[in-house]
Amino acid sequence: MLDHEPMLIDRRIILEGKSLVENGYVVYLATRGDGKKPPVENVHGIEVRRFCDVQEDLISDPKSPAGKREAARQKIECWIRCADNYVSEKKIRGGKSTLLHSIGYALAWPPALAHILRLRLPILKRWLGRAFEPLVYMGMLRLDFLAPYFTLAFYLIKNPAKKVGDSPANDENSWEYRLKNYAMALKPEIIHAHDLPNLEMGCQLAEQLKAVLIYDAHELYPFQYFSDEKQKTKLLNLERRLIVRADVVIGVNQQCVDVLSREYGISNVISVTNATESPPNFDPLERKKKWHETFALPETVRIMVFQGGINPVRNVDPLIQALVHCDENIHIGFITYKKDVPYYEQMTRSLGVHHRVHYILEIPWDQVNDWLASADVGVMPYQVTNFNAKIASPNKLYEFVVAGLPIIASSELVNVCNAVEEDNLGIVTLLKEVDSYTRLIKAMFDHPEGPERFRSSVLAARHKYLWSNESPKLLACYEKISNVNFVPKAVANAQ
To answer: What confidence score (pLDDT) does residue 164 get?
Structure first.
């Protein structure tokens, strides 16, 4: 199996690999490393191999060029994500000498000025991109804040980017090159490429090894939101060129299967959903209190939960802003990544709801169910900004139901809306402005029975969302392509 995500292994990949291992297959997952996780690890019988760029191996040495570059990058990211101090800013604006205080504040902590300008002049940020902050520091003559940018620039001069058209798999310093060499030595019979970023590597390996190629499309990649139409066209052309070389294509629901079949003129597409499994000894009828116990919350507190990366693109901002207008006893729990937290800690402090937002960071997916089951409602704050989002079947839909959680979500999410309405799983409404999030939350919690009025129907539908329904489809696919009479396209094309 091929992946490229260095942070956490996608639950879908683990469940697929686990099912294959349990049925006699030997599964290796080759993926990108971040220098922090172990290069070799066994996950549910899957041998995980992580590969870093040659320069990434040197990050652990702070005196090396790569180490200095990483330190500079982290410092810049910290400034961008957590540049301001809302408490100090509020005091300054409330003072008598507001202008003088503001100037002093900006001189003492330039990232605060950069943050204020980003908010007040968003058009400049859009035009200048990541050059916006260093230009602010340059205008203030703050060399100490410019130093990390010089460090990064010097590193890029010494280590120029690859030319357009060069394959990373041919660059001896890249993680792709290391991964390719590993796969060539391993000589797998089946290459299972997860998502479009891994398909080109999958095609190369399948062709050279005369192996069967499976393309597992977790997303409709070219149909996601892109500010640059050229990027969308580039991805569309890339997928069109590569997908026809796959022996089997997997989509996450029937709509995705239909789009892939119609868009690329292929017929070898099957559906395997993002269903999840119920952990051993997990009882959805047992209502745990992990949020209340961990954060010392009163019994009266009701918890909405969201798991995954939190950022403005996922419309987490209006969800938190809506909390201001809801009952004080309604809190939000995020199961998310550490890097995403500082931005929202600052936002919640400025809104006065910091004590109502709680974070559980980077736990294995098989521990997620207990945290979900300890909440009252699962929330999907997404708005439909692209076709891929509209017809998606998010992991959260399945995880919420299997954990026994009622759901609130946008009515524009076609598959989520259909599931919620068909099985009476919760409430959907059109999510656009903050007011619509507020109304949705109140509609769930202000009812005399609250979320509990949906609990029995969620539990009744739970069996439909389990991985045990999807695993046979994957295994049937593997059984077919493992047949001695099956001729991979890589072999057929060679003949």
So the answer is: 38
